[in-house]
Specification:
There is one protein chain. The protein is an alpha/beta fold and 353 residues long. The strands form 2 sheets. Strands 3-4-5-6-7-8 form a 6-stranded parallel sheet. A two-stranded antiparallel sheet has the order 1-2. 32% of the residues lie in helices and 12% in strands. Helix 7 packs parallel to helix 8. It starts with 31 loop residues before the first strand and ends in a 57-residue tail after the last strand. The longest helix has 30 residues.
Length: 353
Amino acid sequence: MHADPGGAALQDLTGPWSHRVPPRTPPLRHGGARTGRALLPTPPAGQWRVPSPKVSTMKLTARSVSRALLAATLVATTTGGVVALATTSASAASTLGAAAAQSGRYFGTAVAAGRLGDSTYVGILNREFDMVTAENEMKMDATEPNRGQFSFSSGDRILNQARNQGKRVRGHTLAWHAQQPGWMQSLSGSTLRQALLNHVTQVATYYKGKIYAWDVVNEAYADGSSGARRDSNLQRTGNDWIEAAFRAARAADPGAKLCYNDYNTDDWTHAKTQGVYRMVQDFKQRGVRCCSTAAATRRPPTRRSSTPSTRAAPPLTPPRPRPPRPRPRPRRPPRRPRPLRTPVRAAAPRRWC
């Protein structure tokens, strides 16, 4: 018995004349009627079975079964591929900060306080980054423009903007040979050393508990092949000035990470890289807290210092010379066609009579 889509029972079509003769069966030579590819013998009168209009028949062969299985396999494979793609796209990070967080890192940017009124600028900042560094607002000339008089308003704008968005803040920088206020540039010796340590203590104390990490000292090593310290007014106060700055920052804010920041220190073969490494190794052995070193990339400053910097520019890598072009071969002049030589016919011999 067969069941139609509506559930009604259909007439049983099994009987002596309800089957089809296979195509390979030789045709009958008497009383036969051809219907398509199958040849049906003519049944006796009165024994025709008319099927119901709702019945749809399909011939099952090895080819049709294999096609059905292939179609089912393709559907299952395609569906699985769509699910896999959906899962992969769902797990992909949508922002720079989220992408860095997947590998246990953070992705930060430098922020200028004067740009916080730009909605596009702030929108990108809030969406993409999870660490904020003040571009110039926490440097020495901005936080202590006059000796003993500190100003933190611009730095606080950046700090509050970041903390309100749940972002961490990296302080930059407590001690640097550049962007010093004018009054500090006129000092030297022990007077300059005392002013430097007081600056580090006052700024780190003000931001205590609010800064994730401080760039305590910035760019104190010289470029070139010497691997030595940079010649600056801070270096001339004594070779231990970097250690003194790190100890003062540690005492002012014990919870902050303390870092040394410099550029061109990402290649171990550079003498500058090895000089910084030896300094940090010495600090670790003697118990001076230095959590990490930061490799900075140089770019044109957004604001010039009030006085020219004595910092030498990083060496430029000369461009690669282009290989010489191969000289073109001289063109051969076209060959002139050889003139056709007309065969000279020998004169007929004269006959003498």
